[in-house]
Amino acid sequence: MTKIALPSQTGYKWGFSDDFAYTFKTGKGLSSQVVKEISHRKNEPLWMRDFRLRALEIFKSKSLPKWGADLSGINFDEIYYYARPADQQYSRWDQVPQQIRRTYEKIGIPQAEREFLAGVKAQYDSEVIYGSLRRDLEKKGILFLGMDEALAKHPDIVKQYFGTLIPSMDNKFAALNSAVWSGGSFVYVPADVHVDLPLQAYFRINAKQVGQFERTLIIAEEGSYVHYVEGCTAPIYAADSLHAAVVEIIVKKGARVRYTTIQNWSKNVYNLVTKRAWVGEEGIMEWVDGNLGSKLTMKYPSVYLMGKGARGEVLSLAYADTGQHQDAGGKAIHGAPYTSSQIISKSISQGGGRTSYRGLLEINPGAFDSRAFVRCDALILDPKSQSDTYPTMKINEKRVNVGHEATVSKIGEEQLFYLRSRGLSEQEAKSLIINGFIEPIVKELPLEYAVELNRLIELEMTGAVG
Fold this sequence. Notes:
Number of helices: 11
Structural class: alpha/beta
Radius of gyration: 22 Å
Oligomer: single chain
Largest sheet: 12 strands, mixed
Shape: globular
Helix content: 10-25%
Distance between the termini: 39 Å
Strand content: 35-45%
């Protein structure tokens, strides 16, 4: 039976939860026994179990970050680190358990799959519950699997790349993910193959106080192209949940990858994600990162431009309302000549919410004739709200072209007066101004997602006038 949890998040329609009987769920808290149990239940090879256990020790040894947002509210002992909703992944929609299927039908996954997607992965708490890929793409050698399925079917490829861009030592939450990861996506695109329609993954937290720790690995061989889209939601509970994902992307010579996220977690979720891409010669990596939900987000998609002529782009959008802190941005590291990067950040804060842009631009010795541009714009809708900017630039090569721009503004009375004189209400006028502000990000989304993002922001704006 579907029930509504706490109706406290204005305009948030994904705040329902399912009263679902899980096939297995660990107890609260994290220990080596929990890690071994997860690995055993997944029937993993010994090297992966050992990888997890080493990561657990690293997690224990690392302290919480001393910079950034306030993480003191996370109680690691009160989290369930693994919840299995079913003992298998289904390839036919009518095979998925009815309660889970109903959840995704409300979200619109089957319809989206039929209309404009090349493939779908749907993760429910700790496991991918449903997966599909068009037959014509399978015949081209494209792999789109759950991460656990990829480990079982293609262990050599997984072992070759897993943890190479984001090792367990990278940060405390990367270590946590490495210890207890479950689910996520594995994408492999052969050389010169183009996936013209997006692949989508959808991540849903359902159970109370469950952590979700998916692991995503994308490998684009030379001359290939793929667009991967992910969406996220969770119910509204009084207790907090934790989402700590890791994403690693390898973009080889002349390949192009676009990774789009529309994150709309409920406002009781800590969203702490590490995303990194390695880009080879003449490769292109594009991050389009939209953050609306969560209690706290810390996420900085990164591009490591390691081949001559590689290009990287980070488009980041953050929207913070009452009780939210969106600490987001991007990183671009130039390690080869003739590389180029662009980081565009747009943030909106209202109702006492706080947005922070945090970014890094680094041009290393030998990356001559590189170009980089950073722009961060903040829109503050009321006196209670806050916006901060923490840009870092390390330029260690003389023959480069670097630009940086930043603006902080509020909605002007003249703008509102003009639009209202044309017959718009104050709410409609504000929405129109905000849509114009975020347009550089929205125009990069597939049409259906652009419409959805605008609609979500409109819902967030409801009742915010004044």
